[in-house]
Amino acid sequence: MDKSYILANFKGGCLYSFVGGGGKTSIIKSVAEILSAQGYQVIISTTTKLGIEEFKDSRVMVNPKFKGSLQKKEPGTINVIVKGSAKEKYLGFSQEEIEEYSNIPIHQVVLIEADGSRRKPFKVPYQHEPVIPANSTRVFLVMGAKVLGEKITEDNTYNNEGVSSFLSPGELVYTPEVFRKIVEGCWQKLLKKYNWTLLINQVDLLEEKVGLINVLEYLKTQKIPGTLFSVYQKKVYHDTSIKIGCLILAAGEGKRMGLPKQLLKYQEEFFLSATIKKFAPFVQ
């Protein structure tokens, strides 16, 4: 995942959720680093847990209320906001607490880890997962390509029984076809009410990428955008996202009103900011 991809797919005033396995935390940290360098105030949090070790070099803020932690404007920063800590984990906020933060200012981007995978590259969620805030602009489903060719076991799979339930009898090894079946049989149904994208990470570890490219091209016909990339190499190998632009007309000095109409406020938000946020989910 390179800088140009991140800048094209992440906008200010938006909240993005990440689910699945195969490097969610590394992706979130990479996105945060690039966006903060562009001047955004980046907020990282979770509806589950974050590893303390993974954020040992980050600025962590502990606050009992998610919304109460976000009032200070600090452009160009990364803030990890959690509710507390226990057993080498930071504790996150409930879905409802994060949903309260609906009017996100345009200088801010919120990144939410919306489920866990116990550091395993592939997962099918249990019934209580994932926990995705309804105010998510986009949901990114992450899968780890490093499992291709490996037998499906507890060592590389979160809920391997769940994975097997979507496969044919005797289908015991990870193949591109398994990726497709899990996306269509499981995640497509779970994420149908969200604007979402499939991210297949760890592609740098593969000698052969054609199988996964074919899967993405097939899923594109089902209106599921996807990207093959390596967060480690900061490189995109294949992308089927539809590129859409949007031109927002915001001219005019508002002389008769005494101030620009774009800067009028409605529900504590500028008209221009609200308009940008309204169209952000459809722009890539």
Structure commentary:
- The protein has 284 residues and is of the alpha/beta class.
- It has helices at 3-9, 24-37, 95-99, 160-164, 176-190, 210-221, 271-279, and strands at 14-20, 41-46, 49-51, 60-62, 78-82, 84-86, 89-91, 108-113, 122-123, 138-144, 157-158, 196-201, 226-230, 235-239, 265-266, 269-270.
- The strands form 4 sheets. It has a 9-stranded mixed beta sheet with strand order 4-5-2-8-1-10-12-13-14, sandwiched between helices.
- The longest helix has 15 residues, at 176-190.
- The two termini are 14 Å apart.
- The mean pLDDT is 91.
Shape: globular
Summarize the helix and strand pattern as letters. HEHEEEEEEHEEEEHHEHEEEEH
Helix content: 10-25%
| Average pLDDT for all residues | 91
Query: Uncertain regions: pLDDT < 50 for 5+ in a row?
Result: none
Distance between the termini: 14 Å
Number of helices: 7
